[in-house]
Specification:
globular; mainly beta; 11% helix; five-stranded antiparallel sheet
Length: 71
């Protein structure tokens, strides 16, 4: 399996977003995400669910997984 780059978007103090790049090998993006990123809270809303995630104590607001580095 070839190298894949996961870019986690982390919420920092004062509302800033930090991009953390992690290179993975021999594992799928989905598998890495489910093994390493925790779901802290789930809020059920009308017609949708909100999930709050964290990675190493930092709030995760999104992620991108690709075989190329993000711009």
């Amino acid at each position: 399996m070839k190298e894949v780059v996961i870019s986690l978007m982390l919420l920092m103090p004062k509302g800033e977003i930090d991009l953390m790049k992690i290179e993975i090998f021999d594992i799928s993006c989905h598998q890495w995400f489910t093994e390493n990123v925790q779901v802290n809270e789930r809020k059920k809303k009308l017609f949708r669910n909100l999930y709050y995630h964290s990675y190493k104590g930092k709030k995760v607001v999104g992620f991108v997984c690709n075989d190329k580095e993000p711009f």
